[in-house]
Amino acid sequence: MISRWSQVNVPVVGMLHAPPLPGSARFQATFPEIVRFVCRDAIALRDGGVNGLMLENFGDTPFFPDRVPSVTVAAITALAMAVRQVTDLPLGINVLRNDGRSALAIAAVCGAEFIRVNVLAGARVTDQGIVHGIAHDLLRERAALGCQHIQIMADVDVKHSAPLAHRSIDIETKDLVERAHADVIIVSGQATGDPTDSDHLSVVRDAAGSVPVFVGSGVTVANVAELVNAGATGLIVGSSLKQDLQINSPVDVDRVRKLIDAARAARS
């Protein structure tokens, strides 16, 4: 896990959901406005007490299934550098839907500590079609760039998708750990903001062995203790921290503080 989290029992990573970026179907705002929006969220999450941040091109629906255009890479890189100017919290990059190679390149340039990959191994049926695992390319590229310190957080049974054929979640987890060499496993609900099944979490926790397991969706003040007791090593939180609980709204710093307080209470 990230070295700066070594003294944190259950680190909380706050999501930076970027509005539609240049080149995407719904791009409307100017890029400076997008930078200000993302940096305001980063400051609110920092002031609320999170242990890390994860930036993703959340507003760019419909997503490309794999590699994204160069303008998207440029925009996320600029946003990551802007976030670095307002906080030194550990930063992660997720390039949706599954462009882990661009995420790695951005992280290498911006000094980010981790990336998220929705489909690292196997294949999933998604709203982008069939999305294939990229571990074979991504890990070789990480080695070639000398970026072994950049950790790969990999989803198992990733949200907004279904398997091509039934495989138990414990077997999928073991493949991610033993064959795709994920550094962290993420388990989540069926869609953005959906609660994560604590039974699934327990199974993944057992199958992952010594590899950390983060909850990737549906974390709230009400269920933090249940998720920690089920074996969550860390929490990735977005939807429940927004004003009026609207996913496209700015982060509410008071909601962040309440979530952090609940997480600390669950750890004790």
Short structural summary:
This protein is α/β, with parallel strands linked by helices. The chain is built from eight helices and eleven strands.
- The CATH topology annotation reads as TIM Barrel
Helical content (DSSP H or I, runs of 4+): 25-40%
List how many beta strands DSSP finds. Answer: 11
Estimate the strand proportion.
15-25%
Content-based structural category: alpha/beta
Radius of gyration: 17 Å
| Biggest beta sheet attributes | 8 strands, parallel, barrel
Q: Strand arrangement, largest sheet? A: 1-2-3-4-7-9-10-11
Which whole number gives the mean pLDDT? 95
What is the class in the CATH system?
A: Alpha Beta
Please tell me what the overall shape is.
Answer: globular
CATH 4th-level superfamily: Aldolase class I
What's the number of helices?
A: 8
Separation of termini? 20 Å
